Known about the structure:
By secondary structure, chain A is an all-alpha fold.
Amino acid sequence: MGMLTLRRNRKNETGNSASLSGKDTDSETKRRGASQWAVAWRRFKKHKSGLFGLGMIVVLLIVAIFNTVIAPYPARPAPDALKPLYDGEAAQAPSWKHPFGTTRMGLDVFSEIVHGSVYTIYVAVAATLITTVLTVAVGITAGYFGRYIDELLMRITEIFLVFPSLLLILVFARIFQLGNAEPFYSFLGINIPIGLTMIILIVSIFAWAGNARVVRGEVLRLKETEFIQAEKSLGASSWWIMLKHVFPNVLPQIIVLATLSMASAVLVEAAVSFLGFGDPNTYTWGRLMEESYSDMSTTWWSEVFPGLAVFLTVLAFNLFGDGIADALNPRLRE
Amino acid sequence: MGFVKYIIRRGIYMIPLIIGISIVSFLVMYAAGDPIQIATAGNPGITEAQRDFLRHYYGLDTPIPAQYVRWLTHFLQGDFGQSLYGGRPVNEIISFYLFETLKLQLISIFLAFFISIPAGIYSALKQRSAADYTISGISIAGVSLPVFWFGIVLIIVLSYHMGLLPSAGAYGSPKLWPVFGISDPTLDALAHLVMPVTVLTLASLAYNVRLLRAGMLEVLRQDYVMAARASGISERKVLYKYSLKNAITPLITLLGLSIGASLAGAPLTETVFSWPGLGRAYVNAVSKLDFPLIMGTTMIVAIMILVANIITDLSYAWIDPRIHID
């Protein structure tokens, strides 16, 4: 415990707790008042572009949650209902009645984007959860155990990192498209689109490699620090150290990587759907772009606005991710 | 001597990797289902006997391990098989598209590399200036930009509304030249390159600038930079010789990776601009599940990437004398 006392003294001198471990600060929150997270939040509040990103994410969440209220027109009744839904209003340019215009089929583009936002959130959250679990498992295991485990995991990571993943994602997406029988799986009254879930799974499996390398590097650095060495010499088990000390210390890094993963998951899903390899039963933004692709010389709005939604969402996650990276990682901030 | 040994050792390491990638790709594709069934699904007049004939013709009626061995022996002799659609040799298809893909990719990669160096250095030097915010802002927007959407916007504005540039393909018919005020084939090829190159350059430029800016910020803080400045070495030399050389390694890695991966083409950009390249051919092959073509492209890309990786690692030693090859 001598090491911990030493560290506390040093911390009080510098008055900077942000780079210290979550465990240390938890036990000290009451005494010192500001936890690592409070300090980070205070710093984040000064980060204008990060706040702007957060604001855009909040707007997206509100739109997704209240999609039925916000959208002037209902979601499409059945998959691939190709008959014009709103007769006589096809291919109209943006107006007050149809802010983003209507498609050649007569669908209100604004409503379609609002309904699609639900899928965007699903993609961002689900893909990031899976990616993060893989990242943490591989990164911490490789970094902490080292030697041949590290060697093996890093070689596998390299293959994932080096290969242009979009190529393989397309192959897998196409295979699942063919094998997909049931369009939805009902869970607690919510219809979960199976095809889209498969895409999310595929995208996540090809997304963790870079992140895992970063986490591994961070763990390698931590492993040499005094308090982990002290814990080891006290005879703590590997799992205990990983769970109680290594994980809380790499958590800031993991949060940053997770936010950036949301951005890339949304981007990749849009690309896969745009190329025609998406879930035929869900109208994600990429899917809307695929549908209107052949009309871009006439009803350009039906192509441009869904893409703009993708762009702004990805931008929001990236800005937010940059903001929290700066807030959580004072070392990176000059 | 160590140099040659190093290359040989890395080359030997590549063999199990390539065999592994090929086995996995092979299994994945054959798990997808019967390619003949898929290929002939749109043809109601075909009989089961004719399907059997096709399966036999393409060697799909033997057990999968036997098929793999057959594929591998042909592959090692440089024969990638035939496309399931039209029966053209895969080698021929790949070499047909390869030139157009490499033209597009290499121009964009090098443009992005050389623009990012001054932009990244300037951004890092004038940290928190208006110029830095502008450069950083453009690069984060560039990272977030869906390339296919950006391409579409360019086509809508520059081709459909302003009629400035051709929207599709790598070459246009001479009859269309007057529309864009073009008089000779070179200009025609260049006019077709403008938009796809812009899209691809912007996409990789954004990553490069962010990487270089972060690297330069780190290096400029080092003591040896201050020492160099204090001893009166010209700022130009301090920046390009002392700082850039240390900050550029991650950018070189990225350059190596992108040159390796460039063979895969840019599936999205090539599709949007109807570019006659490998990326678009690959997307088409995947949507039709044309296995021999997918396998051929995948293997060529994998080998190119592994080779590019070795070259990248060698280039580290050239840039940074502290790194030893052994």
